[in-house]
Write a structure and sequence with these properties.
The chain is α/β, with parallel strands linked by helices and 426 residues long. The protein folds into 2 domains: 347 residues, TIM Barrel (Alpha-Beta Barrel), CATH 3.20.20.80; 76 residues, Immunoglobulin-like. It contains 11 helices and 20 strands.
């Protein structure tokens, strides 16, 4: 494929977020959506964290070549923490820079200047990638005093002290880990937050991730924040750090996608580990209720990956929902992930249908398009499963097993490698 053609292909991908957003809104209007499937071509987001804008910009052509269609980048506003405040291990960052705002209207931050941010966004667009900006609207920086905030005073905060998680009102109005909680019911505060979102939009971003969404009231999103995003044609996703699908759905009903923590906890605690049970995947996530409204993920800066991290990625990158890959754990040139991205983009359309659900093996089909098998054990396993194909040779696009042929009853015998996966299609 020539460079010019590749550029045209990349440019065409930049409608992905708007398409997901429109589908999610339709799902909200119709109630929970089950088995809808996502269109082939809605691939995945690559999440950056604690990364300079210039470094991100230098990666963008590689990210586009890998098959991602968007990037999620850290908050751009001036914040309290510097790089010297950060701690990290091989699984996640600690003490997150960028998430303790000082000035929402200054985009000269620890990650670079506003001009460098704008350049990164423009280059992402040149590569056919959408940009999801991280917006911190729940709180301001801790331990600096109200005088440090040029646009807020003591009266703009709830000032109710630490969160009592047994009290839903306190979850929304209390100070998250000591961070002073903004008073979203104040029209003045909302005006400042609207200016903040508008600045992102004016810099050309394509989507907004609402940090700590569950610590803000649903009405703030339904009546204000999602409307501000809609006015600018932006995709919206809220960080709803809760394992209850009903809680996630409450925020999705405000008109945005949500991070699928129900699926994350299912994968980490119940399915993808040496003592796991893959049957937990059946209706194990919010994605099974609202495929277009779920952003699925394996780990992030707050949440460590399952023991069988690669299997979890094989699952979310071939299943329904809009998956996100975490840069601190997965490099831009990761062979396994890039192969799964190709499979997702080219083969993984249609609703997901479970073909076998067992403790050790799990097989599902993206109906009529792709058959995926997962094996949790330490040895090869085989299983006969029904499919949509009769007397049809299926190729394993994962490269982990040989080709197979379905019989006249549309059944096939799969061999799946230890703690591995297969991805079959005609």
């Amino acid at each position: 494929m020539s460079g010019n053609n590749r550029g045209s292909e990349r440019f065409s991908r930049r409608s992905i977020l708007k398409g997901i957003g429109a589908a999610s809104t339709a799902a909200v209007g119709a109630g929970a959506l089950s088995g809808s499937g996502a269109a082939v071509g809605a691939n995945a987001a690559y999440q950056y964290y604690h990364t300079d804008w210039t470094q991100i910009e230098s990666d963008l052509s590689t990210i586009a070549d890998a098959g991602y269609d968007s990037i999620q980048v850290p908050p751009a506003q001036k914040s309290k923490l510097s790089k010297s405040d950060r701690e990290y291990d091989d699984e996640k960052w600690q003490t997150p820079a960028g998430y303790q705002p000082i000035n929402h209207k200054s985009f000269d931050s620890v990650f670079g200047t506003e001009a460098e941010y704008a350049s990164m966004v423009q280059e992402a667009h040149n590569q056919g990638l959408d940009v999801i900006a991280d917006a911190v609207m729940n709180h301001m920086a801790a331990g600096v005093g109200y005088d440090a905030f040029p646009y807020f005073s003591e009266w703009d905060f709830h000032n109710e002290g630490a969160i009592d998680y047994s009290d839903p009102e306190s979850v929304e109005d209390g100070d998250l880990v000591g961070l002073p909680d903004l008073k979203q019911e104040s029209s003045y505060v909302r005006g400042q937050l609207q200016d903040y979102l508008q600045k992102y939009a004016d810099l050309g971003v394509d989507g907004i991730r609402f940090d700590a969404a569950k610590h803000m009231p649903e009405w703030f999103f339904s009546d204000y924040a999602t409307q501000w995003a809609d006015d600018n044609g932006l995709y919206k996703v809220g960080e709803v750090l809760n394992g209850d699908p009903a809680v996630c759905d409450g925020y999705a009903q405000t008109g945005m996608s949500v991070t699928d923590y129900p699926l994350y906890y299912t994968m980490k605690e119940d399915a993808f580990n040496q003592d796991g049970d893959l049957r937990a995947l059946d209706n194990g996530g919010y994605v099974d209720q609202n495929a277009f409204g779920a952003m699925t993920f394996v780990s992030n800066h707050d949440s460590r990956p399952p023991q069988y991290e690669r299997m979890a990625y094989a699952y979310i990158l071939t299943y329904e929902g809009y998956p996100r890959v975490y840069s601190h754990r997965i490099g831009v040139n990761d062979g396994d992930i890039n192969n799964l991205l190709w499979i997702r983009q080219n083969l993984a359309g249609g609703p997901a249908v479970t073909r076998h659900s067992g403790r050790d093996l799990y097989v599902f089909e993206r109906e009529g398009n792709l058959l995926v098998g997962l094996n949790r054990t330490g040895s090869w396993k085989s299983k006969w499963v029904p499919t949509s194909w009769t007397n049809q040779t299926l190729n394993d696009y994962s490269g982990n097993a040989g080709d197979v042929t379905t019989n006249s009853d549309a059944w096939v015998k799969l061999w799946i490698p230890p703690t591995g996966w297969v991805c079959y299609a005609p």
